[in-house]
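Annex B. Sample input.
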Amino acid sequence: MSQDNGYHHIPMWRDVSEQEWEDWHWQLRNRITSVDQLKGWFPLTPSEEEAARRTQGRLVMAIPPYWASLMDPQDPHCPIRRQCIPTMEEFELREHDLLDPCGEDGDMPVPGLVHRYPDRVLFLVTEQCAMYCRHCTRRRLVGTTSRGLMSSANYDATFAYLRAHPEVRDVLISGGDPLMLTERRLETILAGLRAIPSIEFIRIGSRTPVTMPQRVTPEFCGLLKRYAPIWMSIHFCHPKEVTPRLKQAMDRLADSGVPLGSQTVLLRGINDDPAVMKKLMHELLKVRVRPYYIYQCDPAQGISHFRTSVETGVNIIEALRGHTTGYAVPTYVIDGPGGGGKIPISPNYVVKYEHGVMTLRNYAGEPYTYYEPSEVQAPTPAAAANGNGHANGNGNGRGAPVVPIRTLDDLLKTPSSKR
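Annex B, continued. Sample output.
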């Protein structure tokens, strides 16, 4: 577990009391939003300074003091620093960058509600975040109030839509970050959802417990208990984020009966190393958070410098599966650009499959053979053509077709020597 660095050594907060530091409202009021605040503490790189001065409107720089205290002021490559201070690379647009990479706007039947999957929806309740991560996939809308996502009219329209669509049983509340709302506003949302009989499963997606754990108050946890069960998906990216203060927040949530899962974005130069990712997964389990997803970084405008190859993500899963507990192995997914939804990507452990015989490899690369019972083997193509499920038409020609299995090298077009 990473240690908190404390804050009294930082000039601008030297005289701040612990009571003030632990007040999440104080943390919000005192976020770092200017170059001058940072330069009064440590020198910025030319790229950081120019980008911070140019970043206006959407996705402004806003760094809670708690998160800033975890930064290494001497290291421009610090994983905490890189996630919150902009660089000029954000102003480089690449050929395949998209404004709305997940195609959310096209699947909004009412403002702020994304209905893509058959039985679940994404409910965007605010554009605000405690900190604006530089790799944000919703940078088209966060940090502004242009969408009016916090309006009661939008909430009412969402509740009406959900009442009219009883096939929806699962709601993910996101944003922005829902924890930027007051308990009163959050209760309006939770009560409205619980009043709809078809809604069985409610989740909250948030980064705030990591960037500003002071927000996880007894009052907030009490609210979640009143509307239990409420699940939380919390955004972690690096083991340095798992501090003793973070553990206090996770303990408070878990002790309140909130199941906790993580979602992690694969980021170049931050967590694209198998050892770093393994360390993060282990640290999460130690604070009662179950690793859930690793996301391939979306092709949003201005964040291509964070994107890795898909092979990098596959190799990370390969380094986890079998080498550590299965609880520490999340699902690696690519969000299909333009609205395809989450598509799981994993190493291929099937070497060959022919006539009911499957050759597999385990995590160590060792081959094993699995034989299917004859009565469950699939018919051959010839049998399917005869229409009776048997190759020779008399019930004696049972056999499975050869199913072409693409190897990992086929998928990635990469020689195995480079994996």
